Amino acid sequence: MTDVQEALEFITRGADEILLLEELRKKLATGKPLRIKAGFDPTAPDLHLGHTVLINKMRQFQDLGHDVIFLIGDFTGMIGDPTGKSATRPPLTETEIQENAKTYQQQIYKILDPDKTVIEFNSKWMSKMSSADMVRLASKHTVARMLERDDFDKRYKSGQAIAIHEFLYPLVQGYDSVALDADVELGGTDQKFNLLVGRQLQEAYGKKPQVILTMPILEGYTASDDKMSKSLDNYIGITESPDEMFGKLMSIDDEKMWRYFELLSFRSLDEINGFKQDIDQGANPRDIKFKLAEEIITRFHNAKAAEAAQTDFINRFSNNAIPDDMPEREINVGSEGMPLVNVLKEAGLVSSTSDGHRMVKQGAVRIDGERVEDSKQILNSGFSAILQVGKRKFARVILSDR
Amino acid sequence: MTDVQEALEFITRGADEILLLEELRKKLATGKPLRIKAGFDPTAPDLHLGHTVLINKMRQFQDLGHDVIFLIGDFTGMIGDPTGKSATRPPLTETEIQENAKTYQQQIYKILDPDKTVIEFNSKWMSKMSSADMVRLASKHTVARMLERDDFDKRYKSGQAIAIHEFLYPLVQGYDSVALDADVELGGTDQKFNLLVGRQLQEAYGKKPQVILTMPILEGYTASDDKMSKSLDNYIGITESPDEMFGKLMSIDDEKMWRYFELLSFRSLDEINGFKQDIDQGANPRDIKFKLAEEIITRFHNAKAAEAAQTDFINRFSNNAIPDDMPEREINVGSEGMPLVNVLKEAGLVSSTSDGHRMVKQGAVRIDGERVEDSKQILNSGFSAILQVGKRKFARVILSDR
How far apart are the C-alpha atoms of A189 and A215, rounded to whole Å? Predict the structure, then answer.
């Protein structure tokens, strides 16, 4: 795929913003492999599909023949939280960072081509940097521009403390682009400011400034538009079991399905548009969703596992068609969780908890198609499934603690 | 002098502010020699009396038996101006810094006791500091507190750029107190913020916080209350000739004389109060000023030179009593300077330049009591002297370029 326009279309798919497109076009036109940088946290990785949006984009660059640099920001990780305020951010040892890097590799090589991926650690250059070099680095940026960053701006205006080293971290991240001679840096939309710092620093150090490509933040699989994240319990981890993945992917609504296709599938946009036409012509959206789930489970497990998960899913729901349009209930169960019968009542599936106990006893209650026997079982925040009572009562239920 | 109260009175003489006096009392009460820090610029020193206010205070601590550390901030000097904007701040080499240190020694040992003075360079610890240590150091202070510093506050509010490394310099200066285990840091009033940073950093690094003692800024010898500085051309350099020193010191007004006595003289306050009484009882202020000039010239040259300068001064003015109250004229002569006759006219001493030429020719014009022969000589900005035409016309003239 040497045609620049074709490459550009491939690269811009799903992208939120590219600065500057014209520069990217020129870089591509040279025909030389570009150096594509993306930075990752050095803490123990447990990637979910949200993270893979960026990694997929790296893969696309690989497919176009470019060099992809998976940069682990271990320098700051080894410092930890220097204010000492956060017990959750102890400094990482070199051994821990190496272990985390291995875990990263196990996960990202499900998407990236190991032969075309360079893993770098920024401690390589940062640990050689003297305090005088750090002063020089800090001289390349101004306080006012740093305070323009959204989160700094908010904290400063609301009187929340910003420690001065927090101004140095974006500079370190930006300096990585100088050290790596990055042609393009990828990041989430929320990283745009930091990616721009990289661009500015490359210019300040007399290098060619990088092109910036930001990818949107993927929403979680639940009904809300919150971004996919562990803390919101709306994520699909890439090491989750095929069945879990399948169930969660099947629970997304149709609109979100197209978003997932665009950002997570490697199918061409033409093919995806074909699916849309299929549905317009009467195809069951469930069957299209099957294709998404199949592709993703194949990627992170294998084709056989994907097939088995689908068969299992169909079997569980075989006795009764799941309605296309079922109510969705988000229930706050606090940090203690809630017994199943109460959840059934809150979801409007039974008239009382004693009604609930009776229905479970009769074998009429199913979670994701599987019959349940213990009416008192506690369901916790983060639980998300299709609850069914009898043949016709359905609800998609999400439990939270907020 | 072991009595704490007596020592405190000695120390507080002329001081602008002490934080915290109570802590200083306790430190003194231990009876152990305290570590007194004062920081100096590593650029080529050419000290004037304004600088010596601080050095005199160091000397007083020495006289009380304490250890005085003359700290040369060469770490930042070796970085120069990292923004590259100022051609006047090129990085200093190690050789240059050593040379400057020698020049410092030649000058400060006119006041300090070499045997009780330790000269330190902050590059000793700063050059060993890694970039990670610098990040940790930066974590000890907040952006908001740094922006409270007067000059930063003004610049930020008026939209003038503050480079981020400018936030690191006060931290480096403060860290010097950590590295030195300073008990007391001395500085000019304008250094108060930075001295406080040192105090805070010592606490952050688990050390005993230093007491801060600020000294006022000495005014220049001209009629204005501007601080003594080279750029304002109102300074008395400690390497100036005895005659120059004498002339400049004699030109200060009476009020400033007492200020100079308090901050520059090592005479006791009792003795100085005695001089005040002498004047009240009819003594000529000129004779008291003689004592000030004598002490200062003796300090930086020797007693013989002081005596000679005084004799010379008296001889020059012997034929005519200088009026106590003569007009003072500040004349802007631009960067080109101005011929003597024009200066005479501007000062109102002659009616026209041709009148001026004639008076010079007649030998009626004197500069600081010395007859002049060249009416066309150019007087430049910075020139300051008593001009005299005939027996009765006097003016104290100061030339500036602004």
Answer: 6
Q: Which residues pair with A185 in a beta bridge?
A: A37, A212
List the single residue in B143, B163, B167 with the smallest CB-CB distance to A156.
Answer: B143
The answer to whether residues B343 and B379 touch, using CB atoms and an 8 Å cutoff, is yes
CA gap B84, B80 in Å, rounded: 8
> Strands B35-40, B184-188: parallel, antiparallel or unpaired by DSSP?
parallel
The reply to whether residue A82 touches residue B139, judged by beta carbons under 8 angstroms, is yes
Gap from B140 CA to chain A (nearest CA, Å)? 7
| pLDDT tens, residue order, chain B (402 aa) | 458 888 998 899 999 999 989 999 999 999 999 999 999 988 877 899 999 999 999 999 999 999 999 999 899 888 877 766 665 677 888 888 888 888 888 889 999 999 999 999 999 999 999 999 999 999 999 999 999 999 999 999 999 999 999 999 999 999 999 999 999 999 999 999 999 999 999 999 999 999 999 999 999 998 778 899 888 888 999 999 998 899 899 888 888 999 999 999 999 999 999 999 999 998 888 889 999 999 999 999 999 999 999 988 887 765 555 666 678 888 999 888 999 999 999 998 998 999 999 989 988 898 887 888 898 999 988 888 889 888 778 888 988 887
The residue with tokens 């007492």 is B258
- Cβ(B177)–Cβ(B39) below 8 Å: no
- Residue A254, classed as helix, strand or coil, is helix
Query: Residues near A334 by Cβ (< 8 Å), separated by ≥ 6?
Result: A381, A401
Cα gap A18→B345, rounded to integer Å: 70
ipTM rounded to 2 decimals: 0.77
Q: Among candidates A362, A360, A365, which has minimal Cα distance to A386?
A: A365
Query: Nearest CA to A92 among A115, A76, A69?
Result: A76
Q: How many beta carbons lie within 10 A of that of residue A4, not counting itself?
A: 16
Return the number of other C-beta atoms located less than 10 Å from residue B42's C-beta.
Answer: 23
For residues A367 and A386, what is the distance between their CA atoms, to the nearest angstrom?
6
- Which residues on chain A are in Cβ contact (under 8 Å) with B172? 135
Which residue is closest to A80 within chain B, CA to CA?
B136
Cβ separation of A139 and B165 shorter than 8 Å?
A: yes
- Any idea which residue has 């190991």 for tokens? A114
* pTM exceeding 0.95: no
Q: Roughly what angle, to the nearest 10 degrees, separates helices B285-300 and B242-250?
A: 150
Gap from A303 CA to chain B (nearest CA, Å): 47
